[in-house]
Amino acid sequence: MEKSGVSTQESGLGKVKNTISKINSVINTVGTWLFRLRKPVMAAPVVYYALKLAAYNSSHLPEQVGIDLQSTGEFAQTIGRELAVMGPLCLTLACLLLMFCSRKAMYAWAISIFTLTLPLLLLFSNTYPS
User: Fold this and answer.
1) Same domain, yes or no, for 77 and 113?
2) Looking at the whole model, is its pTM more than 0.85?
């Protein structure tokens, strides 16, 4: 009788080990796919907001956009609206391209997040001059 009880416990323990190994396999597969897709997942919101800001600026910026606001309230230089819209957009996309080419994705991604402030700064400095 005792031998059948021991074999039942061993078969139950084998089932538990088999179930745990299947769960670990699923977790490892999900982790592997998340690691492989980390760059597109990180880039998607940056691309979305960069395009959204570019579209907004193309309709709300004046025809001539001033840059390098002086302490007197005048701009040192002016550029066209298209350059003011496409310049920051191209810079953001270049940072994302570097992110896809780099092994260290977080550095270029953080810089691309920072470049999203450029369209906002252009908009605020040209819409609300002091």
Assistant:
1) yes
2) no
